[in-house]
Specification:
Strand order of the largest sheet: 2-1-5
Structural class: alpha+beta
Strand content: 5-15%
Helix content: 10-25%
Order of helices and strands: EEEEHHE
Distance between the termini: 55 Å
Length: 150
């Protein structure tokens, strides 16, 4: 299984995995109806927040409202239903994540799938190209007539 992630519902920021080149921070799977958020201090990149699989959570939160019977299904099957819900269905209780533990579920839109999968970032947060001595600013070194002088 590869890495995957979401963006936060309130700031639209990627939730990076601990294996990425980005610094990580505590992220929360928000819950409706005043229930406390599920805290994840170190996201591993596989959809588990505080021991709770996000797709399983999604399936269980929405099954009854959508007329889906999850009884008799094992974890993998319930998770598969949650994946289908996320990508193919309009659900009444969508996934919502935030870096803010006080964020209110009902005040926010659904989180979206992270295009970088929480891992594959185009930029490198740890290395700024302006400070990289191996990148020539204009692409070509300047011709120096006195090149042999040193």
């Amino acid at each position: 299984m590869g890495f995957f992630s979401w963006t936060t519902a309130d700031t639209n920021e990627s939730i990076p995995s601990v294996h990425s080149n980005r610094s990580t921070q505590t992220v929360y799977l928000l819950q409706p109806n005043g229930r406390p958020p599920i805290e994840e201090e170190c996201y591993e990149g596989y959809g588990v927040f505080g021991g709770q699989d996000a797709y399983e959570w999604l399936a269980r939160q929405n099954a009854e409202a959508l007329g889906i019977d999850l009884s008799g299904l094992d974890f993998d099957d319930v998770r598969s239903v949650g994946i289908e819900m996320f990508f193919d269905m309009d659900v009444p209780v969508p996934l919502k994540f935030s870096f803010n533990p006080k964020a209110v579920y009902e005040d926010l839109p659904a989180s979206e799938s992270c295009p970088n999968q929480g891992f594959f970032y185009d930029d490198d947060e740890e290395e700024d190209d302006d400070e990289n001595p191996f990148i020539i600013p204009d692409g070509e070194p300047e011709d120096d007539e006195d090149e042999d002088d040193y």
